[in-house]
TrEMBL record:
InterPro entries assigned to the protein according to its UniProt record, in alphabetical order: TM_pro_TauE-like, TSUP
UniProt lineage: Bacteria, Pseudomonadati, Bacteroidota, Flavobacteriia, Flavobacteriales
ATP-binding as UniProt keyword: no
Membrane topology: Multi-pass membrane protein
Chain segments annotated as transmembrane: 7-38, 44-61, 73-92, 98-115, 127-149, 161-187, 194-214
Gene Ontology cellular component list: plasma membrane
Cellular location(s): Cell membrane
Name the UniProt record assigns to this protein: Probable membrane transporter protein
Length: 238
């Protein structure tokens, strides 16, 4: 067991899921640049996908009664197509180009958070398009969340239903991504075994993030997070 790998993985998973727990987004966008210091992109995606699976099982169980199943059905098939396309690109594309593409995606995400329209109206075809593109970026970078926010927010208005439905959509994406990564040879038994050593760090991140959420100025934290995302996105590009 490589101690350097465990330290890198533990640091990335702790930072990513700590942020995810506090503000509800950007876990992958925080964890991926850290993992890419010592891992190639497919390995980094494999590890993040495993921990998203752990997180999804718990959250879906907790929020099941609030999930809008109609939205899940509408986005599920489109997301499955997108995830498979994303994993094909992840498997056969050049790592350097993908890192630069990830940097561009992170910066576009920051722009969307700052300037994005809150009430974008989508028809059925556009909703399906956002589902496919969300699945694509989830497959290639484990970061399809921003596109799903647009699609789900177009249909669901009540805050608790929106949050629960987002959890459900991302759980479906994770359920498709895990076997697809395994079939594509990106996810292996070795990834799973190593991830088990990091589980305590994952649980600690969720616990501390939940405690901090009750005390922190969330708006200030989000602004700091966007600055960090800008720096990491720029670093990946250049």
């Amino acid at each position: 067991m490589d101690p350097e790998l465990l330290i890198l993985l533990g640091t990335a998973i702790f930072c990513g899921f700590f942020v995810q727990t506090v503000v509800g987004f950007a876990g992958s966008l925080i964890a991926l640049p850290i993992l890419l210091i010592g891992l190639n992109l497919p390995d980094a995606i494999a590890y993040i996908s495993i921990f998203y699976l752990f997180s999804s099982v718990f959250l879906v169980y907790k929020e099941w009664k609030n999930i809008d199943r109609n939205v899940i059905m509408r986005l599920g098939w489109a997301s499955a197509i997108g995830v498979i396309l994303g994993i094909v690109v992840l498997t056969y594309s050049k790592p350097v180009l993908l890192k630069k593409a990830l940097g561009v995606f992170i910066l576009l995400y920051v722009v969307y958070v700052i300037f994005g329209k809150k009430n974008l109206k989508l028809g059925k075809k556009r909703t399906a398009f956002f589902g496919i593109m969300g699945g694509f970026f989830a497959g290639i970078f484990s970061t399809g969340g921003p596109l799903y926010v647009i699609a789900v927010k177009n249909t669901v208005e009540e805050a608790k239903i929106f949050r629960a439905t987002m959890i459900g959509v991302l759980a479906v994406v994770t359920a498709v991504r895990i076997p697809s990564l395994a079939v594509g040879g990106v996810l292996t038994l070795s990834h799973i075994k190593i991830s088990l050593f990091i589980l305590p760090v994952f649980f600690l991140a969720q616990f501390l993030g939940g405690r901090l959420f009750l005390k922190i100025n969330e708006e200030l934290f989000k602004k700091v997070l966007l600055v960090l995302l800008c720096l990491s996105g720029t670093a990946l590009i250049f």
